[in-house]
Amino acid sequence: MGVILVTGGAGYIGSHACKALADAGHVPVTYDNLSTGWEDAVKFGPFEAGELSDRARLDAVLARHQPEAVMHFAALSDVGQSVREPGLYWRNNVAGSMTLLDAVTAAGTPRFVFSSTCATYGEQDGVTLDESCAQNPINAYGGSKRAVEDMLRDYARASGLAHVSFRYFNVAGADPERQVGEHHRPETHLIPVALDAVRGRRDKLTIFGTDYDTRDGTCVRDYVHVMDLVDAHIRGLDYLAKGGTDTVFNLGTGDGITEREEKETEAEVTDSAVPAVEGPRRPGDCTALVSGSRRAAELLGWVPERSTLPEMIGDAWGWHQTAGYTK
Ligand code: UDP
Fold first, then answer.
1. Which residues are identified as catalytic?
2. CA end-to-end span of the chain
3. In a designed cystine with 111, which of 14, 69, 225, 263 is the match (CB 3.0 to 4.6 A)?
4. pLDDT value at 322 more than 90
């Protein structure tokens, strides 16, 4: 039990990770520039405002808190934006992570957990994806995360930094106790966009592409509950503390769900029709991303317990009906 520096701790996944860390007896210190996160979401430990690109600030925060591990969530993660503005992704996600790794290895922090993505795999012809699949990202978001995975291995080889990378499939849901949840500005992710449409906070959901080679023509994704996802991170810390290192884990359930199926479940859970129209494909989207791995189960003992679609949408809906964050 000790101090864990959580970059991006004010964001969606990072704030849930802070809650899980605090529940497990750790002290999560959030390092975040609040560009996409919320100060209101920092509830479980100290807050240190700062940029990933600010080496002096990182050095000072590492010296003050002496963390035993870093969990690195801070990143831009909007696929569509990454296609339009790749430089943003390479500068923030890649160059920012490099500065962080410089600081972390100089400070001698022993362990590092990296938040990666299934978008590093790219288009793979309908196969389920295990960690040995080739990584051929088709957008700058996936490209930037793959680059950081590679960078992390190089830094670890030089410094002995123990590390794991988690490749997330589609993270959904919210803290069932409603202390934290998903709140982006602007919102771009499928489930919260559809919930906003149900609540009348936007006109409608646009389904991006209905001509994909899938069972109903819409993209297939593998959704995992954010509480299950952060549980894997706690297990990852334990794995590193026991001498594990240099391991990549997929975090998904193996169930592929189409957008139309997602929309139908959303209508059932909220007991309301989801106002929706069909639109063209969104550049950068893969046809199907489904996890085919059991590595996290085998090495971490990780079993997703809340990741059914009705439970994820139910928790997201519960959170959406709260006030959310204001600052
Ligand atoms: N999607 C959609 N309409 C939206 C947002 C997303 O049709 O308003 C689709 C998107 O094209 C993708 C899937 O939903 O096929 C999941 O997108 P999301 O942005 O939630 O996550 P991603 O898979 O891009 O990380």
1. 141
2. 30
3. 69
4. no
- The pLDDT tens digits for 29-47 are 999 999 999 999 999 999 9
Position 95 pLDDT exceeds 70: yes
Question: Which pTM was predicted?
Answer: 0.97
Same domain, 89 and 119: yes
Q: Is the pLDDT of residue 125 over 90?
A: no
DSSP H helical segments within the chain, as ranges?
12-23, 55-65, 79-84, 86-89, 96-107, 140-159, 190-199, 226-241, 259-270, 295-300, 309-320
Q: Which of 147, 18, 136, 172 is nearest to 91 (CA)?
A: 147
Closest approach atom of ligand 1 to CA 259: 14
Domain at 46, CATH number? 3.40.50.720
Considering only CA atoms, give the Rg of the chain: 19
Could you tell me if 211 and 308 lie in one domain? Answer: yes
- 75 and 199 fall within a common domain: no
pLDDT at 59: 98
Which residue's C-alpha comes closest to atom 6 of ligand 1?
190
Q: Please report the atom of ligand 1 found closest to the CA of residue 262.
A: 14
Task: Tell me how far the alpha carbon of residue 168 lies from the centroid of ligand 1, in angstroms.
Answer: 14
**Both 134 and 199 in a single domain?**
no
**Ligand 1 midpoint to CA 159 (Å):** 38
The tally of domains found in the chain comes to 2
Residue 178 lies inside a defined structural domain of this protein: no
Instruction: Please report the pLDDT score of residue 326 as a whole number.
Output: 77
Ligand 1 site, CB within 6 A? 79, 170, 188-190, 193, 205-208, 219, 221, 259, 282, 285
Mean of the pLDDT values across residues 287-292?
Answer: 94
CA of residue 32 to ligand 1 center, whole Å: 25
CATH of the domain at 263: 3.90.25.10
